Amino acid sequence: MGQNDILDAFRSAMRHVAATVYAVTTGHDGERFGILATAVSSLSFDPPSLLVCINRAGSLHEPIASTDRFCVNVLGVGNRDVADCFARGGTGEERFSIGDWVEEQGVPVLASAQSSLVCRIAHRHAFGTHTIIIGELIAARHRENAKPLTYYDGRYIDITEAPDQQP
Amino acid sequence: MGQNDILDAFRSAMRHVAATVYAVTTGHDGERFGILATAVSSLSFDPPSLLVCINRAGSLHEPIASTDRFCVNVLGVGNRDVADCFARGGTGEERFSIGDWVEEQGVPVLASAQSSLVCRIAHRHAFGTHTIIIGELIAARHRENAKPLTYYDGRYIDITEAPDQQP
């Protein structure tokens, strides 16, 4: 099996699973930085921790390498405008022109996000084009009546309206 | 904010995002092992790689620590019987009594899975109760007309029937 076949199948596989949309943010030297991410995973409940995979060529990598904290904002369907603003690009502060952002523990937190998971960086590991950042939670908030913003096969969907899967 | 509050909010946050259901499998000493997992993330396309977070107290940890390969089987809605069989527990071979399992590169691959991502282990990193396993893809297959088995808020849903999210 050739490397290109593997890559094509891998890309297709990843496009056809549900991806929750996260805004990963940090603050550094008085500036705010953030990206949309889907490569986020819970890691352990003891200690409460998660990981995010950050592209080393992306705009968040240098700020997050220079600080020890970040926030994973779990976006809800009501935060679609924030997702669209982040997706348009723009640097640093431009991305925070839409949304009810507040500062908490030195990082930007979206007050209306479905969940806010503020982390202290516990470990970094570089692999390929990305760095895995392990964060230990130092603050967390979850809003009831969640409707997570979910991306599947190139479009945003409302999974709370999905029917139960019948065995 | 207390540690219990953080943990409660973290658990609620994770329960209210879409989780694709993966069967992570390996072979060791002629035996097959596998678990259901949701803590899987793509990592890099260069080289094609992903990571899985494995509980060190779980049945897959020792086998996967003793080998250098594993498979991430992305389950589709048609594999619900396999998910249910894995979820019932049982050790080793019992979990493979249901499903069209074949051997490929020394690991169990579910022929009817939505996608099969066979990996060579490139790195392991222990954190908290879990070990992060980084796998570099050595074979990958994706079936068209995907309908990923997705878990959300305690139930299986069919996300391909979810309506588009309206901005």
Write up this protein.
- The structure is a homodimer of 167-residue chains.
- The first copy, chain A, is 16% helix and 47% strand.
- With 167 residues, chain A is of the alpha+beta class.
- In chain A, the strands form three sheets. In chain A, strands 3-2-6-9-10-5-4 form a seven-stranded antiparallel sheet.
- Chain A is globular.
What tags apply to this protein structure?
homodimer; 167 residues; alpha+beta; seven-stranded antiparallel beta sheet; three-stranded antiparallel beta sheet; 3 helices; 12 strands; 16% helix
Could you give a quick summary of the protein structure above?
Helix content of chain A is 16%, strand content 47%.
Structural class of chain A: alpha+beta
Terminal-residue CA separation of chain A: 34 Å
From the alpha carbons, calculate the radius of gyration of chain A and give it in angstroms. Answer: 16 Å
- Counting DSSP E segments of at least 2 residues, the number of strands of chain A comes to 12
Query: Biggest sheet of chain A: strands side by side, in what order?
Result: 3-2-6-9-10-5-4
- Low-pLDDT parts of chain A are none
Counting copies of identical and different chains, the oligomeric state is: homodimer
Order of helices and strands of chain A: HEEEEEHEHEEEEEE
With helices defined by DSSP (H or I, 4 residues minimum), what is the helix count of chain A?
3
Measured as a percent range, the helix fraction of chain A is 10-25%
